[in-house]
User: Fold these one by one.
Assistant:
Number 1:
Amino acid sequence: MICTAILSAAQTESGPSPHPTRKGDEQVLQQEAFTPAIADILVARIGEGIAGHSRKMLLSAFDKTDSQDYAAIKEQVNAIMDAYRTFRVHYRVESSALNPDATATIHANFQIEQQPAADNTVAFRREAAPTFIAKRTSSGWRVISFSPATFFVATE
């Protein structure tokens, strides 16, 4: 329960993740039943992936085969990583619940400070309240869709 609280409200800066993927995370994601810990791990992978400039970590939250247009998600992630030098990220799972169709809805809140990659630029902050839809896939619980679609779009 304490780990869940730590992961659900974390602030990170670029560089090595203060919450690296733990070996137990993958076991939790393999569980049949959806739990709040699964929501925490998926949102942490996204938040820590952004903060650590780790495409691999961020994309590990998404299912490559069941996600709505995984190629577009990967393109957006690559674009935002190329456009910004550093990120400071604060994220929190607001709520999560299993849906009747066996998917899960995860409401999160992100505060992101982004430093553009170009020289002589000023960092700016943005807030987002994305909703992620997760599903138990052959890879375990993974995000299969999210809104707003502009969450990973590199804009100021």
Number 2:
Amino acid sequence: MMRHRLDDHPNKRPRAPRSAVGAGVAAALALLGCMAGADQTGGPPPAAGLDAFRSGFYAFASTSCGMCHASAQAPFFASRDVQAAYTAAKALVDFANPTNSRFIAYAGNNHCGVANLCGPNSGSPAIVQQDIVQWANAETSPGSGGGPPPAALAYLTASMAIPPISTLPMLTAGKTAVLRFALSNLKPGVAPLANAILELEIVAPNPTEYRFTNPKIGGSTAVVQLTGLHVLVKPSAVAGPGGEDPNQGDTWDAISASIRVSTLPNPLPTTPLSMTPLDTRAIAVGAYSSTGALNDTITVGFDVLQ
């Protein structure tokens, strides 16, 4: 079975006859939550576990199971809202024994009546087992609160709420929104940047992805050498600074640039600053929240500022 990332095909779902999935399947799947060892704990999810879920099992489930389990039939482990899907799926997995997951059994028992999706020869059980094991490893490994961990980054900005993705300009709109971080809140502080700001431009190329461009730092009172810029995103309910997108969000990790002395305009414009960006490449980061009720947050980290 071909496996696709969600952001490659955000609106595509495989078709299946609705008559193939009866009420008996819904009842059987509902019993999954009662299996021994299923995780029923609450509280904010660890960022590393959520990342592993999104890039692995969720990428499979959203394309292969979404015609039923996105919104039509519980459990909603393929919901378009990643955090809601995570919560639904986590209740059905025993992370101490991930290979015994009922998800693996259902991936090959032809319960949906579409043999190439969930038949015994579909290849789905092997994919699901790999994804569930990787997810379990992320949930149970030390330091599962997100990556790279804060200790790996020498400097961190304060966290900022990302506007709901539905309100951001689309990629084809010909304009961007701007996010600005006051570097007076940088931890630890850097004296020449005490009154400076970091600016990122942001658009939404599709309903499940952010695209960041043109990182700029204005208002420095001395030349500062910057190495490594890391964009960390997480759901607002998750503790910590968040993690980098493991698939496509690390392009700026290798930035090495000089922050030049500059004066910020007063007042600041609502449009992007007119100055040379630190890097001209774009990075894409998967969104966790697709609704206004569950906004994501962003933190930016640096390896070196000297």
Number 3:
Amino acid sequence: MNGSGGAAARPRAGDELLRGGALERVAFDPVGGSVELVVSGRRCTFEAVRATTLLAPWDGTPGTVEWLRVVAADEASLALELRVQWLEVPRVYRMVCGAVRFG
């Protein structure tokens, strides 16, 4: 999240991590406890997922990510909200995870 090449700062409550973009992929790894999204070619991996309202498997329905933001954060957990505009309705999903990584 910083462009200096060093370690990225841990997100804080109120940070917006993504804004806008086509949702291209949603993949769940229940054994590894991770969820991966690809939004307009940008990979976002949620690690050590403890809870989520995202459902698997994703059926490929077209959607646009409106935003991904941090609702709460401490040293061990991030509480996130993801708003997706589907063809007919928007939906907000929630997730609690240990970390989020972009690559």
